[in-house]
Design brief:
The complex is a heterodimer of chains A (about 375) and B (about 350). Chain A has a domain of about 110 residues: HypD, alpha/beta domain 1 (Rossmann fold), CATH 3.40.50. Chain A is about 40% helix and about 20% strand. Chain A is built from 16 helices and 11 strands. In chain A, strand 8, helix 12 and strand 9 form a beta-alpha-beta unit. The longest helix of chain A is centred in the middle third of the chain and has 17 residues. Chain A is globular. Chain B is globular. Chain B is built from 10 helices and 13 strands. In chain B, helix 2 packs parallel to helix 5, helix 4 runs parallel beside helix 5 and helix 4 packs parallel to helix 7. Chain B has 2 domains: about 160 residues, PurM-like, N-terminal domain (60s Ribosomal Protein L30, Chain: A); about 170 residues, PurM-like C-terminal domain (Phosphoribosyl-aminoimidazole Synthetase, Chain A, domain 2, Alpha-Beta Complex). Classes of the chains: A alpha/beta (about 375), B alpha+beta (about 350). Chains A and B meet through helix 1, helix 2, helix 3 and helix 16 of A and helix 9 and strand 13 of B.
């Protein structure tokens, strides 16, 4: 596969990282934050990648007490409905489907089991880095149905749309995607509009904006009068994002700012956006643990229905969902912190998760379980 | 570090009746004998193998270390090595970090029907090369063949025996508060080299596996510093963090690690970022951790740095009586976090 351009070797990546993990810059930013903050502010980092950055580098403990970070719903694996996981499991176990998925999805519990357990039970489950590999598998196995579990936010949607276009160009009849795509701005709006919300400002998800640009966020900022700063994932990015948000809050301002300019442009990646629009349309989507959010999901358009696994296998029954003890909804809305959940660390661990936030590399519970000092 | 390619030219593959392994090669009859004589015995020849008895007879005198390991790596030939030299070095290193000088090895193959004969030959040659480099002898072995689809080309088990060095006094119980934790070289080379060649994950890199025998340097350290070297471990599968966890758990002490002192190749670091992996959890094959008395930490480090592969050796942390049984990483930017225990399969991230 060629997702890494030829000239970009692993080594050339590093310069962009070390500069944004610079200890002196971090100190300066912390000093600025301490000088600026007077009020008590709750800031939500939307993306699970940001949550992990904050915890992994020990940043949460370096922030002044007046700033409380609330971990947002930005973990696509965590919000994927159980019924879709059950469907994926059913397809590979009972219908001879080759089920392809990103690795994060594997351990997330469905009603009766996870994809990992389905694989051990004989299901053909393959971990891939790109849906285009799944198209390739479909090409090489014309007698088998191949389904790609299309999970993710706006970041992974273009590649999944591209896989549908490729399958269509190749006239493949054995490739389809099980779309579980969700969009960030509707979720942010749901949190902003929640009467119980405690969030004062947002760090918006940098990589989502790399694809989509900034245009969707301006109306949110104006309507709900909350500062939003598009932020990256490294320590310097995160601290600068936090500083920009509290600078606005202290002055009583609300604006959209872009901290992640080295990657995010105002217009985003137009080609990618066009591709997504061509293949998908927005409809209401159920978020695991949170509930239905209007126009927050991507579904395949009518003209691509033959590549829609949900349509292709719509008669397949899945087990009735059972009540879960997982409090993921409260965690993703920022109402409780992972260690405040009664199951955290005892009944619920990464090896035996009750819910998705303990599984995914982007999940808030997994981040806390793995990195936070246990006192 | 490239292997000497010239060696292979001296060992052309002998004329074989088959160009792939068949079920018959595991049957114990003529085909098996042919494969052994032309392949294994001719390459690994020594007094014990020449006897061709059911068991090798060894005269052992003194304290010995005894260790076994199985190898299932995929792909079987990767940048910097093959499953063959990996299997030899892997067991040698388990003995080496136990304070022993490896002497004898057993070698068992489980071959999958259809394995290409020239692949098998290349693996055998790398085994011979690794044994010669380390001065160990293969004295007994076995070959079985399983049906196509029941294995993954080739699995190898090696078991080794080595004499414990006189001055070696290694064990978790010797660890003390204040001990220094030394890492012998850069992290994660092997795991990333393997991943760069995995199907569906290929990326451009000059990286090679760090598979190599460690007994010379490990023996030197215990000979020179005796009981001041409290423990040695080689962080293979599960990576450096997993071994640090074992040490903290078994000793009952806590461990502090300093991110800025972790030696890592830029290319490995970049690849880990792209793949969403933490290099502390990625496998190594030619690396060891030494827990040494603080009074001789600097001298140990100096000795290590003189070793051919020890240029980047570094004191990466210390043993403490705080946060017992936990490994805490002091991040580059001054934060602190627990290094968690790895839980199962390494999975790629999705966004």
């Amino acid at each position: 596969m060629n997702w890494i351009p030829k000239k970009r070797t692993a080594e050339s990546n590093m310069k962009y990282l070390s500069e944004f993990r610079d200890a002196a810059l971090v100190k300066t930013l912390l000093r600025n934050i301490n000088k600026t903050v007077t009020g008590q502010w709750n800031i939500m980092e939307v993306c699970g990648g940001q949550t992990h950055g904050l915890v992994r580098h020990g940043i949460l403990d370096m922030l002044p007490d007046k700033i409380r970070m609330i971990h947002g719903p930005g973990c696509p694996v965590c919000v994927t409905p159980v019924s879709l996981i059950d469907k994926a499991i059913e397809l590979c176990l009972e219908h001879n489907v080759i089920l392809c998925s990103y690795g994060d999805m594997l351990r997330v519990p469905g009603t009766e089991m996870s994809l990992q357990k389905a694989r051990a039970a004989g299901g053909n489950v393959r971990i891939l880095y790109s849906p285009l590999e799944a198209v390739d598998i479909a090409k090489k196995n014309p007698d088998r149905q191949v389904v790609f579990f299309a999970v993710g936010f706006e970041t992974t949607a273009p590649a999944n749309a591209l896989s549908v276009m490729q399958a269509s160009n190749l006239k493949l009849t054995n490739y389809s995607i099980l779309s579980a795509h969700v969009m960030v701005p509707p979720a942010m709006e749901a949190i902003m509009g929640d009467k119980e919300t405690q969030v004062h400002g947002f760090l918006a998800a940098g990589h989502v904006c790399t694809v989509m640009g900034l245009s969707e966020y301006e109306p949110l900022v104006k309507r709900w009068k909350m500062p939003v700063v598009v932020t990256g994932f490294e320590p310097v990015d995160l601290l600068e994002g936090i500083w920009l948000v509290i600078s606005q809050l202290e002055k009583g301002e609300y604006q959209l700012q872009n901290q992640y300019k080295r990657v995010v442009s105002n217009q985003g990646n137009r080609q990618a956006v066009e591709l997504v629009k061509k293949v998908f349309e927005y409809r209401n989507r159920d978020w695991r643990g949170i509930g239905e959010i209007p126009l927050s999901g991507l579904f395949l358009r009518e003209e691509f229905r033959e590549y829609d696994a949900a349509m292709k296998f719509k008669d397949i029954k899945v087990p009735e969902a059972v009540e879960t003890e997982c409090l993921s909804g409260d965690i993703m809305k920022g109402k409780i912190k992972p260690p405040e959940c009664p199951h955290f660390g005892n009944k619920c661990t990464p090896e035996h998760p009750l819910g998705a936030p303990m599984v995914s590399s982007e999940g808030a519970c997994a981040a806390y379980y793995q990195y936070k000092m246990q006192s | 570090m490239s292997k000497k390619p010239g060696f292979r030219l001296l060992c052309p593959m002998p004329e074989m009746d088959f160009d792939t392994i068949t079920m018959g090669h595991g049957g114990g009859g003529k085909l098996t004998q042919d494969l052994l004589k032309k392949g294994v015995f001719s390459l690994l020849d020594n007094d014990w193998l020449r006897e061709q008895d059911d068991a090798a007879t060894l005269l052992l005198n003194g304290n010995v270390a005894f260790s076994t390991d199985s190898f299932v790596v995929s792909p079987v030939i990767f940048p910097g090595g093959t499953i063959g030299d990996l299997a030899v070095n892997g067991t040698i290193n388990d003995l080496a970090v136990s304070g022993a000088r490896p002497t004898f090895l057993s070698l068992s193959f489980i071959l999958e029907e259809g394995l290409k004969m020239d692949t098998f030959w290349q693996i055998l040659v790398s085994i011979r090369e690794a044994c010669a480099e380390a001065g160990v002898k293969v004295v007994t072995g076995d070959t079985k063949v399983v049906e196509r689809g029941k294995g993954d080309q080739i699995f190898i088990n090696t078991t080794g025996i080595g004499y414990i060095r006189e001055k070696a006094k290694l064990g978790v119980k010797h660890i003390r508060k204040g001990d220094a934790i030394i890492l012998s070289g850069p992290l994660a080379q092997h795991g990333i080299a393997i991943m760069s060649k995995r199907e569906g994950l290929e990326f451009e890199t000059r990286l090679e596996s760090d598979t190599r025998p460690l007994h010379t340097i490990c023996n030197q350290l215990v000979d020179a510093f005796g009981e001041s070297v409290h423990l040695m471990r080689d962080p293979t599968r599960g990576g450096t963090a997993t071994v640090l966890h074992e040490i903290a758990g078994q000793s009952g002490f806590g461990i502090d690690i300093f991110e800025k002192h972790l030696p890592i190749d830029n290319e490995v670091d970049g690849a880990c970022e792209m793949l969403g992996l933490d290099p502390l959890y990625v496998a190594n094959e030619g690396l060891f951790i030494a827990v040494v008395d603080s009074s001789c930490a600097d001298q140990c480090l100096e000795a290590l740095k003189k070793w051919e592969f020890g240029e980047q050796a570094s004191i990466i942390g210390t043993v403490t009586d705080e946060h017992t049984r936990q490994v805490v990483l002091n991040s580059q930017i001054g934060g602190r976090r627990v290094l968690p225990q790895a839980s199962g399969e390494l999975l790629p991230r999705i966004c």
